[in-house]
Amino acid sequence: MKKFLPAVVRRSTKYQAGVAAVECALLLPVLIAFLTLGFFTVSIFWHYTMAQKAAQDAARYLSTVPVAEMMTPASARAAGDLAQEIIRREIAEVSSSSEIGTLETFCDTSNCGGNAAGTLPTTVRVHFLISMFDPFGLVDTGWYGLQITANYTMRYAGN
């Protein structure tokens, strides 16, 4: 009986020598896929938060433009252009893999500078679209990338 037990133990360990390598080979692609999906999801939320923050900063600037500048269409148009430049710089600073598509600044319902001379807007709104591409190349986001829209509206403080 004493000779029988060690032979069984030896035989079972002999057949299980490569089991860990086989398990690793089978599970490693699944784990890599889950990690890739997790990183990509975090990247989407990060780009969305970055876009909303840029829209908020640009709208905050537009809402605090002095009344004298908002009364003339040329100055209001220049303020709208500066708000667009704020967005471009913030997006470029944080993410080099994103491209800005549509970028519009509104004073009430028309583009800034489109209001009649001597009228003040009640609200200012910033709207833009960015295309996010996977910086690691792990997920195919298509030819145009993943489209993220940012939109932020504030009351004009000069009223």
TrEMBL record:
The chain crosses the membrane at residues 20-46. This is Pilus assembly protein. Residues 18-60 form the TadE-like domain. It comes from Massilia litorea. Keywords: Membrane, Transmembrane, Transmembrane helix.
